[in-house]
Design a protein that fits this description.
Elements (H helix, E strand, L loop, with lengths): L8 H24 L5 H11 L20 H5 L11 E7 L6 E4 L5 E4 L8 E5 L4 E6 L9 E8 L2 E9 L9 E10 L2 E8 L3 E6 L3 E5 L12 E8 L7
Amino acid sequence: MLNLSFRPASVLRAAAAAVLTAGVAASMQACATPAPEAGDSAASSATSAPATDSGATADAPSPTASGSKDGSQAGGADPILRGERQVVLRPVGSFESILAVDAKGRLNLTDGETDKSLFVLLPAGGNRYQIRTAKAHDSGEPDCMGLRDNGSAPATVVAAACDSRRAGQLFAIEKTQQKDQGRPTYTIGGEGKVYLRAVDGQGLTAQRVGEGDAGEGLTFDFVDNGAAPAGPGD
């Protein structure tokens, strides 16, 4: 049987020389490599591990960040809320009634045909809008809807010369979760936390909504009637 632990002297001398040569080469390489300076060490760390400072996540959207306000201010993708369409304002649940400006200049319920029942919703920033008549009336220009304070009685909505600086002419239009005949529905709020409310037999008023209120007559849908005509300055 061969003794595997036996090695000739010449083999041992060759092995020792090889080990010595390898050790010298490693030592020379270590001496030739300069020690990293402090700046180099920091740069190496930055490329070998993910950064944890705020700059590293600047391009990543925050999970709580809201979308661009530009879309909401201009009605997003809805041409009605961009002021590009003329619409009929129809109270949800009202029996064949729509909103129109009556002979007294008040926005009210009607169940008949009239040229004063088409409106354009003009964006005024955020979810606020002016409600402008689609056609010019007695003054030769379109009118805008505005709130009229009636003291202890509920406020009403009347036609007046358009002026976006008047807070009474700015209405908050907010989409609800309900649809009517496949169309989105909305609430229309005015200054002083009042909401437009249309009830058959009572007409259209603007009043505060109390806790426990059933919400009758508070929602509207907008029936598209074609492209909005050009308004003053368009």
